[in-house]
Specification:
CATH architecture of the largest domain: Orthogonal Bundle
Oligomer: single chain
Number of helices: 22
Structural class: alpha/beta
Mean pLDDT: 85
Strand order of the largest sheet: 1-2-3-4
Shape: globular
Helix content: 55-70%
Number of strands: 7
Number of domains: 3
Distance between the termini: 66 Å
């Protein structure tokens, strides 16, 4: 049965069981679900139904309830926890891995955040506080400090025994090898561990210089490294090369999803932390600044048009056709911007190959300018009957499509060089350029050719 269909059936069943008050059957149904499916179901319920279902599950299976919350949108998950006593939350956060707990605790209100950390048992508090000390969106923040590592002098037989007795790690893909000071010195696969004699030391069979990442590395760079080297997990080390934690592939998938969502939202001028569960007032407050910036750029374009008001008054048809120039330039620029931002995000585009990327986009811009310029000229000629107006439209469109190619490539590269997010402000700047310069090119050419129009 398709996953979405199954979730819909579970969703309908939960609502029905809540209506008739069949708590025992509701608990039984919830306990049969995977945490990821539970998170999807909780997200689709109304706020009242969501809170009721979560509370019911929490009373009977707190571990599963917290695993589901860890899979939820962070802000939505916090709404289910924020009104609970700090002492209870401390116990609940102990049910999930420290990296998931840290992500949720970080979003709690200040006083509740401090109280929860104070109540947590010393071991969990140390782990969570260690993660919270790292900057947001870094390897240190998303790593799991409970990493399975053994001494390089340990024998294979003892290593296998230690692995069998381990109950503290989330999952193990590789065995990391450390020296007496805790420095990461090697790695080996579990398969390799099982294929050698029990007396062999780990030092003899480990792969030295394993791929690793520093705790201050941005999470997007970590995800790219895991993808490039086809890893299931990557160790995290501190500045002294001491093993601090591990990032597993499930966390990397979450990072890739979050980063892709963030870039998509920012290209549209929407804050990266907004979701479908964000309140209307909060969404309005977050979107307002960028819309205000957009209003300013629109006014700038309007001033350019006003500058040529006398020309428009003499040839009214210009008012209809000038929107075509700006619209085509804006759409072409967004296409280029999307390709360039994606290339930057995936590490495919650097200053070293940016000239080639620019050349490609300019070539595309020229070809589009020729094709759509001729098409626009034909439209203008057939509707107005003026060949010169068609020529002005064709030339202005070709110029603006060329501007779009340059702007869509150079602006995100420049923002990246200035340590700004290329996806955040590129769309606003590019729309301004294509509108202002598109209007200026079209109306300027029209003014020059006014005697023939």
């Amino acid at each position: 049965m398709p996953s979405r269909r199954r979730v819909d059936i579970v969703l309908h069943s939960i609502k029905r069981l809540q209506r008739i008050g069949a708590t025992a059957n509701l608990v039984k149904l919830l306990r049969k679900q995977h945490p990821a499916d539970l998170a999807q179901v909780l997200g689709d319920l109304s706020p009242l139904e969501r809170r009721s279902a979560f509370t019911t599950l929490l009373d009977h299976d707190s571990g599963l309830a917290m695993q589901a919350v860890a899979e939820l949108d962070r802000d939505l998950g916090v709404t289910l926890l924020v009104d609970r006593p700090a002492e209870q939350l401390a116990r609940l956060f102990a049910e999930i891995p420290p990296d998931d707990a840290a992500a949720l605790i970080d979003r709690l209100p200040g006083e509740l955040n401090a109280s929860v950390l104070e109540f947590m048992r010393q071991r969990e508090t140390d782990d969570v506080q260690q993660l919270l000390e790292h900057d947001d969106r870094t390897a240190g923040r998303i790593m799991n400090p409970e990493v399975f590592a053994l001494s390089e002098d340990l024998s294979v037989g003892n290593a296998i025994k230690a692995f069998q007795e381990s109950r503290t790690v989330e999952m193990v893909f590789y065995l990391y090898v450390i020296d007496t000071q805790g420095h990461l010195v090697g790695v080996l696969s579990l398969r390799r561990l099982l294929l050698v004699s029990a007396e062999t030391t780990l030092k003899e069979i480990m792969t030295t210089e394993p791929i690793r990442t520093r705790a201050d590395t941005h999470q997007e760079d970590v995800a790219r490294e895991v993808a490039d080297y086809n890893l299931l997990a990557i160790p995290v080390v501190d500045g002294d090369n001491k093993l601090a934690g591990v990032i597993t592939v499930d966390d990397v998938i979450d990072v890739i999803k979050d980063e892709a969502t963030e870039d998509m939202l920012r290209l549209a001028g929407v804050p990266a932390d907004e979701s479908v569960s964000t309140s209307p007032l909060e969404a309005w407050r977050k979107r307002l600044p960028w819309l205000a910036v957009n209003l300013g750029t629109a006014v700038l374009a309007a001033l350019v048009v006003q500058r040529f008001q006398a020309t428009i008054d003499q040839v009214v048809a210009l008012a209809a056709f000038m929107t075509i120039v700006a619209s085509m330039g804006g759409n072409a620029a967004i296409q280029t911007l999307t390709v360039i931002v994606r290339g930057i995000a995936l590490g495919e585009l650097t200053w070293g190959n940016s000239r080639r990327a620019l050349g490609k986009e300019v070539a595309v811009g020229i070809l589009n300018g020729v094709v759509f310029g001729l098409a626009g000229a034909g439209i203008a000629w057939s509707t107005v009957g003026n060949l010169y107006l068609g020529g002005v439209l064709a030339l202005a469109m070709a110029i603006n499509l060329l501007i779009a190619a340059f702007a869509g490539t150079l602006i995100p590269m420049a923002l990246r060089a200035l340590k700004a997010d290329p996806a955040l402000a590129s769309a606003v700047f590019i729309t301004t350029l294509t509108d202002v310069l598109g209007f200026f090119a079209f109306l300027g050419l029209a003014t020059y050719a006014l005697p023939y129009l």
